[in-house]
Amino acid sequence: MATNGASVNGNAAKPSGKKFDPTFTQRVIDATGPKATPRIRQVMGSAIQHIHDWARENEITVDEWMAGVDMINKAGQMSDEKRNEGQLLCDVLGLESLVDEITYKLATDAKDQPTATAILGPFYRHDAPKRAMGDTIVFGIENGDDALMFGQVTDFKTGKPVEGAVLDVWHTAPNGLYEQQDPDQPDFNLRGRFTTGPDGKYNFYCLRPTSYPIPYDGPAGKLLQLLDRHPFRPAHIHFIVGSSPFLCFCGTDIVKVSAPGYKPIVTQIFDRRDKYITNDSVFAVKDDLVVDFVPRKGDPKAQFELAYDFKLASYDDA
Ligand code: BEZ
Ligand code: FE
Question: What is the domain partition of the chain in residue ranges?
Answer without folding.
Answer: 24-60, 85-312
